[in-house]
Specification:
The chain is α/β, with parallel strands linked by helices. It is built from 15 helices and 15 strands. The protein has a six-stranded mixed sheet with strand order 3-8-7-6-4-5. Strand 7, helix 7 and strand 8 form a beta-alpha-beta unit. Helix 2 runs antiparallel to helix 8 and helix 9 packs parallel to helix 14.
């Protein structure tokens, strides 16, 4: 006999599938209609291909009041693209306001892989960021992106880029040669736009952001059908008073250290918590994001900072790569060469895939000695350090200046550990959780 209950469920499932397909068709049709006008005017809403995953349909972004403050100049950005774009835009806009310098960020999965301001690049940085072969002069905004992308090239692979200033031809040239999903900026020169429109066979995502846009003071989101509401995190992190409460014996914060600590704190404001950020010379060199334990954040970010520094070791800078090696293969090879698994790229029968001649390994003793030469590093934490072990780990990566919220029951242990190494630490009294 026929199972009528089962049959009814099957019929409902079939009906739901048909209904979902129809909704997706309507949203796709709406998107195509929107695309016809996207270059002429802003819109109240924009249909997306799908949400976080292909099965999450329908999907859109929209404004409850007014028009969207963005224009899609090229490509078809998706749900995650827009999350990266809008979070990273806030970061670079705030960095520019705090430092007065052009800023750039490299975002992956709603956290920065790198963030920097547009200070000039040394010859060493040009070489390790692989921009020393460019025939064009690097503008300040191009320098900012080279720093943001170059700090952690493994994490930045396939990034979404944010620029605080107009994207010029030099910056577009840098972007074109990297694997990336898209870019958001307040404007683009005609030459830059032409360069970017040639990327990824014409599908590269280019978003123009209205720099005058101010969001509502209250933000709303949903989780499991329940609506959350809170005031936007409008805390200013360029206030010198943040560094007034200095409980350590060393109370000296040079101007460069305060700038770098501001960069660290602003970066953390838009990084999934828990998070810790190491900064040197105007750029993040190690970001530890989304870890449940703060010491794991400190270790993760510290290991990234160490890798950034090790890439400047003469042995690494002079690796004899074969001609025409792919950029991703070169980056992966450097990462393995620096690690304890260096034999994976140096053993007979393997090294020939990457190198013209077999390199000598970078020994553990050489790495330790080189890392010990890194100094003047600043470190920010999005909440208090609960134990001195975080300071012990930070010290190993050259940290000399720290800004953290303070307020742990073990603050005395943290202060004592800082004093042991002569580290200057400020209690900001500000927590910067971001979820």
């Amino acid at each position: 006999m026929r199972n009528f209950a089962l049959s009814e469920r099957e019929d409902r499932l079939h009906l739901n599938k048909k209904r979902n397909k129809f909704l997706c068709y309507v949203f796709d049709l709406h998107y195509l209609c929107s695309q016809n006008h996207i270059n002429q005017q802003r819109m109240k809403e924009l249909a997306l291909k799908y949400g976080c995953n292909p099965n999450q349909k329908p999907s859109r972004i929209y404004m409850q009041e007014g028009e969207l403050p963005i224009e899609v100049l090229n490509g078809r950005p998706g749900y995650i693209n827009f999350l990266d774009a809008l979070n990273s835009w806030q970061l670079v806009k705030e960095l520019k306001a705090a430092t007065g310098l052009p800023a750039a960020a490299s975002f992956k999965h709603v956290s920065p892989a790198g963030a920097a301001v547009g200070l000039p690049l040394s010859d060493t940085l040009k070489k390790i960021y692989f921009v020393d072969d460019l025939k064009v002069e690097l503008s300040p905004i191009a320098c900012a992106y080279a720093r943001a992308r170059g700090a952690d090239r493994m994490s930045s692979y396939g990034d979404f880029i944010a620029l605080s200033d107009t994207c010029d031809a030099a910056t577009a040239t840098l972007i074109k040669r990297e694997v990336s999903d898209g870019v958001i900026a307040p404007d683009y020169t005609e030459e830059a736009l032409q360069i970017l429109r040639e990327k990824r066979k014409g599908t590269y995502n280019v978003i123009k952001m209205d720099p005058t846009y101010v969001p509502a003071p209250v933000e709303i989101k949903q989780c499991y059908g329940i609506t959350f509401e809170q005031g936007r995190n409008e805390i200013r992190l360029d206030d010198p008073a943040l560094f007034d409460n200095i409980p350590t014996a060393n109370k000296e914060f040079p101007a460069e250290a305060k700038r770098d600590l501001m960069i660290a704190l602003i970066t953390l404001k838009y990084t999934q918590s828990n998070s810790v950020c190491y900064v040197k010379d105007g750029q993040a060199i190690g970001i530890g994001a989304g870890q449940q334990s703060r010491i794991h954040c400190t270790r993760l970010a510290g290991n990234k900072a160490d890798i950034w520094w090790l890439r400047q070791h003469p042995k690494v800078m002079n690796l004899p790569f074969i001609d025409n090696i792919r950029r991703a293969d070169r980056d992966n090879t450097i990462d393995v060469y620096i690690s304890d698994d260096y034999d994976d790229v140096l053993r007979d029968g393997t090294w020939q895939q990457f190198f013209k001649t077999q390199p000598e390994p970078l020994t553990r003793e050489e790495k330790k000695a080189w890392i010990a030469q890194n100094t003047k590093v600043s470190l920010g934490s999005d909440a208090f350090f609960p134990f001195g072990d975080n300071i012990e780990r930070a010290h190993k990566s050259g940290v000399e200046y720290i800004a953290q919220a303070g307020g742990s029951v073990r603050d005395d242990n943290v202060i004592e550990t800082c004093d042991k190494y002569g580290i200057a630490m400020a209690f900001t009294g500000v927590r910067l959780f971001h979820h």
